[in-house]
C-alpha cells in the first residue's frame, strides 16, 4: 500500500469497529489485517504456525492475540481442509462474535458444520475473489480486495446485524459484496476460477518437455493463459477436492468441446469441420464479451501497443504523455522479449480515445506496434 493510499484510507470512517480477530496469517488473512489497520481498526492475529504469525506481525498486519480479547468479528482465513474445524472452535470460543471465513469453497464446510450440529446462527460464510500467485504473509497487500467481488452466503436465520458486519468488512476493504447461496457460489467459482486454474496448469505442463526454441517464441497470449499456473499445488488440491462435483461438471463439458474441435481438425476437409472450429472461436468471442469490464461494467475497450525503451522513467513518460492527451488508461499489460532492449506496453482505452492516443503518441516520438497475436 502506497503512502498516499494509506493516508486516504485513514481519512475514511471505517464501518468495522472494535477488535477483529483474524485466524490464519497467510496471504488473505494478512491482507485483511493490513487493510483494516490502515483504517485504524484493532487486528488480533492467530496462526497455527508461530513463524508465520511472527512474520505477519513484523510486516504490520496486526498484533498477537491476547487472553482478554473480545472480538466482535472473527475472520477465519485457514486452508480449506481445516476451515470447518476452526470455524467450530471460534464459534464456541467467541459466542458473542460474528464468525466468517474466506475459504474459496462454501458448501462443503457449511454442510460439515451442520452435520456436526454446530449452532450456525452467528456464522456467515464469505469469499473475496482476490489473491495473488504467491502466498504467505510476505506477499500480503492491503489493496488486493479493491474492486473485487466478495461473496456473502447468508441464510434465512442470519440476523440483519450480523450480515451488516460482514458486508461492512467487505466494503471497508474496497470490495463489492454479492449475496449467494453456498451452492450457487461453488458452481460459480468452479466455472470462473477452479477450472481456469486446471486449464492453465495443464497447458503450462506441456512446456516442461518443449524445445527451448519453441518457448523462445512465447508472447503475451500464452503468458496470459498460463499466468495462474504458478499457484501452489498443496492449496489447490484441497480446493479442488472440496469442490469436485461442480468442477467435474464443467470439465466434462469442456472435454466434449475439445474433442469436437480435435475431431474437426483431424479431418479439416470434411463438410462442417471448418464451421465447427469457427463456431468454437466465435462462441469464445461471445463468452469473453460477457465478462465484467472496468468497474464491473460490460464495457469494450480498444488496445494500442507502444514500444517502450527498457530504461528508467520511460513508462512514467508514456503515462505523462497520455495524461496530456486526456486519454485515460483503462488497463495495461507489459511484455518483454528475451534479449530485447525494449518492452511492449499494451494499453486499453475507450474506443473514442484510440485515434487521439495513436496520433498524439506518434507526434511525441512513440512507436506504435501492431497488436500481439
Topology diagram in text:
Layout: H1 3-11, E1 19-23, H2 27-38, E2 42-46, H3 50-58, E3 63-64, E4 73-76, H4 83-93, E5 98-101, H5 107-115, E6 123-128, E7 149-153, H6 160-172, E8 176-179, H7 182-205, H8 212-215, H9 220-226, H10 233-242, H11 244-266, H12 273-289, E9 302-309, H13 314-324, E10 331-336, E11 342-349, H14 351-363, E12 367-369
Parallel strand pairs: 1-2, 1-4, 2-3, 4-5, 5-6, 7-8
Antiparallel strand pairs: 6-7, 9-11, 9-12, 10-11
Helix pairs in contact: 4-5, 7-11, 11-12
Domain Prephenate/arogenate dehydrogenase: 18-295
Enzyme class: oxidoreductase
Family: Belongs to the prephenate/arogenate dehydrogenase family.
What does this structure look like?
The structure is a single chain. By secondary structure, this protein is of the alpha/beta class. It has three domains: 3-180, 3-Layer(aba) Sandwich (Rossmann fold); 188-289, 6-phosphogluconate dehydrogenase C-terminal fold (Orthogonal Bundle), CATH 1.10.3660; 296-369, Alpha-Beta Plaits (2-Layer Sandwich), CATH 3.30.70.260. Helix content is 46%, strand content 16%. The chain has 14 helices and twelve strands. It has helices at residues 3-11, 27-38, 50-58, 83-93, 107-115, 160-172, 182-205, 212-215, 220-226, 233-242, 244-266, 273-289, 314-324, 351-363, and strands spanning 19-23, 42-46, 63-64, 73-76, 98-101, 123-128, 149-153, 176-179, 302-309, 331-336, 342-349, 367-369. Strands 3-2-1-4-5-6-7-8 form an eight-stranded mixed beta sheet, with helices on both faces. A four-stranded antiparallel beta sheet has the order 10-11-9-12. The chain is globular. The two termini are 34 Å apart. The model is unreliable at 1-7 (pLDDT under 50). It is an enzyme of class 1 (oxidoreductase). One of its GO terms (molecular function) is prephenate dehydrogenase (NAD+) activity. Keywords: Oxidoreductase.
Amino acid at each position: 500500500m502506497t503512502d498516499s493510499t494509506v493516508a486516504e484510507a485513514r481519512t475514511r470512517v471505517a464501518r468495522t469497529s472494535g477488535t477483529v480477530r483474524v485466524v490464519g496469517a497467510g496471504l488473505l488473512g494478512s491482507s485483511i489485517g493490513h487493510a483494516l489497520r490502515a483504517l485504524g481498526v484493532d487486528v488480533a492475529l492467530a496462526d497455527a504456525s508461530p513463524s508465520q504469525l511472527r512474520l505477519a506481525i513484523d510486516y504490520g498486519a496486526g498484533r498477537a492475540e491476547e487472553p482478554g480479547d473480545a472480538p466482535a468479528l472473527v475472520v477465519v482465513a485457514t486452508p480449506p481442509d481445516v476451515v470447518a474445524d476452526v470455524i467450530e472452535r471460534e464459534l464456541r470460543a467467541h459466542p458473542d462474535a460474528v464468525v466468517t471465513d474466506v475459504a474459496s469453497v462454501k458448501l462443503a464446510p457449511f454442510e460439515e458444520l451442520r452435520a456436526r450440529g454446530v449452532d450456525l446462527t452467528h456464522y456467515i460464510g464469505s469469499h473475496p475473489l482476490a489473491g495473488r500467485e504467491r502466498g504467505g504473509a510476505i506477499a500480503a497487500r492491503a489493496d488486493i480486495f479493491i474492486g473485487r467481488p466478495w461473496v456473502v452466503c447468508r441464510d434465512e436465520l442470519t440476523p440483519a446485524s450480523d450480515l451488516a458486519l460482514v458486508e461492512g468488512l467487505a466494503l471497508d476493504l474496497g470490495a463489492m459484496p454479492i449475496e449467494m447461496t453456498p451452492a450457487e457460489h461453488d458452481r460459480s467459482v468452479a466455472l470462473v476460477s477452479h477450472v481456469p486454474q486446471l486449464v492453465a496448469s495443464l497447458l503450462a505442463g506441456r512446456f516442461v518437455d518443449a524445445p527451448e526454441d519453441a518457448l523462445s517464441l512465447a508472447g503475451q497470449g500464452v503468458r496470459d493463459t498460463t499466468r495462474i499456473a504458478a499457484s501452489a499445488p498443496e492449496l489447490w488440491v484441497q480446493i479442488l477436492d472440496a469442490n469436485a462435483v461442480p468442477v467435474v461438471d464443467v470439465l466434462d463439458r469442456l472435454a466434449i468441446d475439445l474433442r469436437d474441435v480435435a475431431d474437426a481438425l483431424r479431418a479439416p476437409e470434411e463438410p462442417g469441420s471448418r464451421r465447427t472450429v469457427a463456431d468454437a472461436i466465435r462462441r469464445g468471442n461471445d463468452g469473453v464479451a460477457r465478462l465484467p469490464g472496468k468497474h464491473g461494467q460490460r464495457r469494450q475497450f480498444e488496445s494500442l501497443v507502444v514500444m517502450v525503451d527498457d530504461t528508467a522513467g520511460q513508462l512514467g513518460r508514456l503515462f505523462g504523455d497520455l495524461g496530456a492527451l486526456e486519454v485515460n488508461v483503462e488497463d495495461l499489460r507489459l511484455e518483454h522479449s528475451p534479449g530485447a532492449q525494449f518492452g511492449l506496453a499494451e494499453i486499453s482505452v475507450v474506443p473514442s480515445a484510440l485515434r487521439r492516443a495513436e496520433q498524439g503518441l506518434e507526434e511525441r516520438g512513440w512507436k506504435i506496434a501492431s497488436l500481439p497475436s
